[in-house]
Amino acid sequence: MYQDKIDDYLRKNGFGVFCPKAVLFDMDGVLYDSMPNHARSWHQSMAGFGIDMPEAEAYKYEGMRGVETIKLKVREQLHREISDEEAQRMYAEKSRLFSLCPQAKIMDGVVELQRMIKGDGLKIVVVTGSGQHSLLEKLADDFRGLVSADLIVSSFDVSRGKPDPEPYLKGLAKAGVEPWEAVVVENAPLGVRAAVAARIFTVAVNTGPLPSEMLSAEGASLVFGSMADFRDHWRELYKG
């Protein structure tokens, strides 16, 4: 069913074969239904620093490292450059407000999907722009037996966050696979752009308010409406 999409991916990247050995998952909006909490925290924290960041705008920057998002907004609205240290202090306030939000639920369908992936003998990697220790520490517990600490790429592991391909290139390296041996699962336009730049077959799952066309425009090979929908079609993709 998806052979045409696979063939198109191989042709665009000059690869001869598509043989997945690892699946690289984004975290927020893919593993957890956490983006509403992030959006609210971004809006409230940035307002305290004189920066207007509507909740809906948080989805536009989703996947970018927090300090990079802050430096961008300060440059746009306050017309000055700030250091990483100052941006980190501002990000700490965002993280504090996020910690007060209700606990985000695991996305429907994703645990079953990961069990299928593991059952097919593939590795699971998490590639996130998050630098919030509380979220990163939850991963191994919430996805026990599926996600391991040595296969997590966070903002602490990279110097350039999404949309730069570095996070996904690090994910490939940790898994010990080549681009044509992996699948990325993303929900954010900047994340899709990063994965496509890393030359990995990219599946977008639209779990937020942005139009699906934004995900396709960034180069996603497939777009699903939910994690459960992707779960139900995993075997078709895996078998080509």
Structure description:
This protein has 240 residues and is α/β, with parallel strands linked by helices. 47% of the residues lie in helices and 10% in strands. It contains eleven helices and six strands. It has helices at 3-13, 35-47, 55-58, 66-77, 84-99, 110-119, 133-142, 166-175, 189-197, 212-217, 227-238; strands spanning 22-25, 123-127, 152-153, 182-186, 201-205, 222-224. Helix 9 (189-197) links the parallel strand 4 (182-186) and strand 5. Helix 4 (66-77) packs across helix 5 (84-99) and helix 6 (110-119) runs parallel beside helix 11 (227-238). It starts with a helix and ends with a helix. The mean pLDDT is 94.
In short:
47% of the residues lie in helices and 10% in strands. The chain contains eleven helices and six strands. The protein has helices spanning 3-13, 35-47, 55-58, 66-77, 84-99, 110-119, 133-142, 166-175, 189-197, 212-217, 227-238, and strands at residues 22-25, 123-127, 152-153, 182-186, 201-205, 222-224.
